[in-house]
Amino acid sequence: MKKQFTWLLAATMAVLLVGCANNKGPAQQAIAGAESTLAAVRDAAQKYAPDQLQTVDAQLAQVKEQFNRGDYKSVMANIPALNSAIASLKDTASAKQAEAEQAMVKAKDAWGGVSADLPKMVSAIQSRVDVLSKSHHLPKGVTKESLDQAKSGLDAMKSAWSDAQSAASGGDYTTAMSKAQAAKDQGEQIMHSLGMASG
Amino acid sequence: MADDKTPADDNPYTQTYVVQSGDSLSKIAQKYYGDASLYDKIFQANRDVLKDPNKIQVGQKLRIP
Which chain A residue has its CA at the smallest distance from B42's CA? Predict the structure, then answer.
């Protein structure tokens, strides 16, 4: 009886070992496939969906940890969810990349007008600041403080405009337009404070 | 086509003023700069339409730099 039990135990162990060994190859292949797919989308995902990439990386790490423990069954059970998460990550990154590219094209189109327009605004404000700086009495509605604020605001506006031009030179029209818009908003405030807004 | 009373080469952000009856460049300078003595700034900015700072016409559109 004891001899029979020992034989049965040995047979069971052998079956389990064969079973485990049979799963190791597919599990290894499945992980390699997931890693390869993820590597192909990593750069775009890093840029356009970093949080989602972090989640997928954690899923992959978990599956690899299961593999290292020899738990190939769990690996095979979790691979479909991992592949699905990678596919979803790829879709998200692609959609956000397309969105960013579209915004860039739109910004590039708008840049031409803004780059011609903003220097005129700077020039008009500079002229008024220069003239008012020579005035012995300021006009109604303009105080020494508001003129000083306009001067410092004009410096900030020029700086924002310079940043916008640098961004545009580097091909980053989205940032360029954002900086240019900030400069324009500041310019409008200055014009209003100096009474230049009305005819 | 530019009106001969309208300054050419216009910066859309430069303020403009249409001359009214009784105006002079000094009065306009007083209004916009708080200082009548700065009338020459307006004259120089409108040399294309003004030949004499004492001769401005009602309806003329002037740049106010």
Answer: A131
- Partners of B64 in beta bridges: B15
* Distance separating alpha carbons of residues B55 and B46, to the nearest angstrom: 12
Bridge partner residues of B55 (DSSP): none
Which residue type occupies A93?
A: A
Flag whether the ipTM exceeds 0.90.
no
Per-residue pLDDT of A168-187, as tens digits, reads 999 999 999 999 999 999 99
Of the candidates A152, A156, A138, the residue with the CA atom closest to the CA atom of residue A194: A138
Nearest CA-CA partner of A179 in A159, A154, A195, A193:
A159
Chain centre to alpha carbon of residue A150: 35
Q: What is the pLDDT of residues A83-98, one digit of tens each?
A: 999 999 999 999 999 9
Distance in angstroms (rounded) separating the CA atoms of residues B49 and B43: 9
Which chain B residues contact residue A195 at CB under 8 A? 32
Chain A partners of B36 at a C-beta cutoff of 8 Å? none
Measured in degrees and rounded to the nearest 5, phi and psi for residue A189 equal: -65, -40
Beta strands in B1-65 (DSSP E): 15-18, 61-64
Task: Retrieve residue A76's tokens.
Answer: 């095979």
Number of Cβ within a 10 Å radius of residue A31: 19
Q: Provide Rg for chain A, Cα atoms.
A: 33
**Closest Cα in chain B, distance from residue A169 (Å):** 25
Point out the residue among B15, B18, B34 whose CB comes nearest to the CB of A137.
Answer: B34
